[in-house]
Amino acid sequence: MDTNALIRPSLRDLKPYSSARDEYTGKEGIFLDANENPYGNLNRYPDPYQRELKSALAQLRNVTSEQVFIGNGSDEVIDLCFRLFCEPGKDKVLQFSPTYGMYKVSAAINDVDVLDCPLDATFEIDLAKALQLIEQQQPKLIFVCSPNNPTGNLFSLKTIKALAAASQGVVIVDEAYIDFANAPSAVSLIDTIDNLIVSQTFSKAWGLAAARVGIAYGNANLITWLSNIKPPYNVSELNQQAALDALADKAGFEQRKRAILEEKQRLISFFKAFPLVEKVYPSETNFILIKLPDATGWYERLISQQIITRNRSSVIADSLRITVGTPTENDILINAFKA
Q: Which end of the chain is more exposed for a tag (fewer CB within 10 A), N or C?
């Protein structure tokens, strides 16, 4: 695929902003080029291309650094994809509802129409209907949240391949929860599918939600274009270092992930045995979606005990989304249900 043809026509001749750290990339010297304050510990601009972090992630995911983009959270990755690929007032994007709400919000901000292909009763993508929509409407972006939020289920790589093969636009697979899933990442497909971008984050399994570090993996040319249109210093030095420290603590990462998954199974077992819970939906994430009568009432009663869950009844009838907490927090939740 000619990936340059995917770029918004008005951007194809863009000359990216060149910062002081583009012109001199060394770390040693007397820096009088960027109008920084010469005093302090945080007085210097960070690496605008996050080279050290990209190198560590490339090694982790078995890709090249040129296939890695770092954003100020996954939400910046989503927004930049709208800016890069979609012409305001003209292009359309496709989503599979219920799903992550920022796709629709970013579409509205960027004046892009959203096509919706609802998931079926088992929260799977109706592939025949999706392929028909793609053929008829030619959406510029196709968002696949996998594992999906708020349903918790994972979509197959076979489905992602089929969507990408049918599309003349870009398929964006949002894998915020992939580290909790017992399945391979779609990152394994980026060498063979040019119109695929896979988004991940440090906010979930890596425990850095406050640091706001998102990642995109994809065709090296598309990744270069994302870098061309991003703000020059979009990820702070503090946040880059926090991500590097997290990557260096692989044993701690695995221990915490294992603890979360064990606690998830404990909560699933409890809710499956709880008389008023009608359904516990399958989950490949660090949260559980349950169906129970008067979910809004349950949500409010839990709030009154300072237990904050997410009422998702507006998108999935009579449902609560419950994040897996620490063993102590989960004990408090279980006791509140029993009471």
A: C
